[in-house]
Amino acid sequence: MAFKIGLLGLGTVGAGTAQILLDRASRHPLLQEIEIHSIGVRSLSKSRPVQLADELLTTDLEAIVNDPAVDIVVEVLGGLEPARSLILKAIANGKHVVTANKAVIARYGDEIYTAANSAGVYVMLEAAVGGGIPIIQPLKQYLGVNRIHAVTGIVNGTTNYILTRMQTEKGEFGDILADAQKLGYAEADPTADVDGLDAGDKIAILASLAFGGRIKLQEVYCEGIRKVSAADIAYADKLGFVIKLLAIAKLQQPATDNSPEALEVRVNPTFVPKTHPLASINGVYNAILVEGEPLGQVMFFGPGAGAGATASAVVADIMNIAAVLKSNNNATTLHPLLSCSHQHYCAIAPIEDVVTRFYARFLTKDRPGVIGKLGTCFGNHNVSLESIVQIGFQDSLAEIVVVTHDVREGNFRKALDEIRSLDAIDSIPSILRVL
Amino acid sequence: MAFKIGLLGLGTVGAGTAQILLDRASRHPLLQEIEIHSIGVRSLSKSRPVQLADELLTTDLEAIVNDPAVDIVVEVLGGLEPARSLILKAIANGKHVVTANKAVIARYGDEIYTAANSAGVYVMLEAAVGGGIPIIQPLKQYLGVNRIHAVTGIVNGTTNYILTRMQTEKGEFGDILADAQKLGYAEADPTADVDGLDAGDKIAILASLAFGGRIKLQEVYCEGIRKVSAADIAYADKLGFVIKLLAIAKLQQPATDNSPEALEVRVNPTFVPKTHPLASINGVYNAILVEGEPLGQVMFFGPGAGAGATASAVVADIMNIAAVLKSNNNATTLHPLLSCSHQHYCAIAPIEDVVTRFYARFLTKDRPGVIGKLGTCFGNHNVSLESIVQIGFQDSLAEIVVVTHDVREGNFRKALDEIRSLDAIDSIPSILRVL
């Protein structure tokens, strides 16, 4: 019995996937039973990095998801449409689906998994988060015996590359972004990466798996790295931190015993203590830290993107579906750890209710008593400070850095509003959360 | 339908396992269908960290593996016997087995898996390596689509704790071992840990999974950390390295196109470049780095021991068996990624054939020409040097440090034999491999 693959897309990841499936020696023996049946492409004439028989290729993607011979549809087109529609059609036709498409799953996961469950098929997405790092299946199959407290990840390689270079070269965001674009590490339109939206899609998916409920993507707070400056990175360094774009999903400590449980799900540049396992993840690498009871902390590290790494995850998903079908061909019940049965939506805390530490940098007129006034404003709003230090001058302005204890974000923002109205305040160039 | 667990052993890991299974709220819903049926203990009167109904406990371990009501036997006794016999009896009685016992699996894995395959049952061992880190199942289910080149791990927490403290405190092995024993980080008889035998069991298991064949444990080369000195750690630091006890399973580069493929499987203290992902794994933590094509490098990091972490892995295995049985109750075929079908034994290269870099420290009489003589001896045996430096004096002896390029270990040893016969040589206090 051979499992027949319909591959939608032959870009970087598609070509990498085909390459593994066409060169199966010395890989898992189960791959011998998996074969590429057809590949949907935009243009038949384009040259490819992988040798393929002409008759495998077609521009008719609909035909692939409707082809009764195809067992598993592998969607590596990227983008929302036609990816979403093709996935739904494949499911309606009783085909299993493997996708690397975090954008589609984060937005249409509920629709897709509802359809998959009623059709009795699997939708696998290991490649959607963390590239080649096995993180989706460990969360689904292993870590769930724990009470998960938090999932914290560096899940966007482009921004981690930019922040790493800003740190090493003491450069500014704009210059390094431009260079990263030249070198192919950032896209011509870098919005999805640098504004944290890609990381937002990914943490929505991880949060859903870790906390066992659906996540409304519009409730995920996303803040990117455009405002991070060389000055902040230098101060972070002095204080014993590095700045990383973290994607965080965390169960809140209830304020009282009767408070409802809520999740924080957010993406923001963060001061990370240098001793923290995520602090040393540099360049385009990704890492995901999972914390739970009784396990403690485990971290998964590896290449977050790239043809080979992502294809490794895609083919692993194909192999897992093949394995279940092989041992379980007549079953009417889906394997409970490979399928997704979430029904309810997780309650996501508004960003104002998040409790975290903050770092903020102020430029103020150099007058006596400014530090006292800042302290008073923070006190007025219940914001407890760890330190408030004048660190120097910039032009004729005094530069003051504040680090808070854990505070409610809403209170911190109100304090900032009051501070902005002070005569002595010129500006607040940086506000960053501290892990 | 509930799955009934017979738990053999109620020590640290057993109690941790029971604790999870008795307190299932906010964990994976599948755990609701798993219940403890009986627990085998040595003494009924001992006080336990976990509250258990008296009628669950028995001192008759045989009765548990023979009890028709038990679906899954969980062996957390440790040690070779009666663990091995009880596992084999459970299998013969058609029960699935979850074990945390690296020693039994590394020694009797062939016997146990042959029996399991013929009885049509699963033997799961996530907890046997890396404590709470999911590494066994990612290797079995995900990473195998790659051509694995190497698995390199810090898999023994005790030795990593000792080496980390030797590095931080500039202390000697004996003193820190004694203190670690006082603090409970090392056992009264530390042999299995400090001589690398525990790590040897674990790398044998990882090698078997990564390279798809059985491993003869007696072919695994094990060298411990007793000879590592504060002086070596200091020189390593100067040269840009830290010293770690690494467990390594690596496909050798064939010397010629016709050379047979062979595996290196070994445990030895190693110079690890400070920039390497394993260099920053400190204290009792474990980490396993897997390298393959096309994936590149992925690393798994977490607590390598402890009641909670290990129990997390044990319960995850139980849940995986339950999931397969639930979706697949009448199947006659084992799930190919959860079972183990290795038949052949991997060819393990003798340690003399390993190709690696070396660091060696010599004490020599302070005579002109000693460095030249050392160089000549190495040259005589085809050992190419990266550096040879006199770094100082110790008493009236000159201290010379040599770092080689990649060399065949057999050649290096022959060169050392010749060097030992030189008049000018007092001793060779340290010989360490370099990653």
UniProtKB/TrEMBL annotation, chains A, B:
Pathway the protein acts in: Amino-acid biosynthesis; L-methionine biosynthesis via de novo pathway; L-homoserine from L-aspartate: step 3/3; Amino-acid biosynthesis; L-threonine biosynthesis; L-threonine from L-aspartate: step 3/5
UniProt EC number: 1.1.1.3
Needed co-factor(s): a metal cation
Catalyzed reactions per annotation: L-homoserine + NADP(+) = L-aspartate 4-semialdehyde + NADPH + H(+)
Species: Crinalium epipsammum PCC 9333
GO biological process terms, semicolon-separated: methionine biosynthetic process; threonine biosynthetic process
UniProt name for this protein: Homoserine dehydrogenase
InterPro entries: ACT-like_dom_sf, ACT_dom, Asp/hSer_DH_NAD-bd, HDH, HDH_cat, HDH_CS, NAD(P)-bd_dom_sf
Domain ACT residues, every copy: 359-435
Residue positions binding NADPH: 102
CDD domains the record matches: ACT_HSDH-Hom
Family classification: Belongs to the homoserine dehydrogenase family.
Residues at which L-homoserine binds: 187
Keyword Oxidoreductase: yes
UniProt keyword Nucleus present: no
Active site (UniProt): 202 (proton donor)
Molecular function as annotated in GO: homoserine dehydrogenase activity; NADP binding
Keywords, sorted A to Z: Amino-acid biosynthesis, Methionine biosynthesis, NADP, Oxidoreductase, Sodium, Threonine biosynthesis
Residues reported in the UniProt entry to bind NADP(+): 8-15
Enzyme class: oxidoreductase
Domain of life, source organism: Bacteria
Pfam family, one: NAD_binding_3
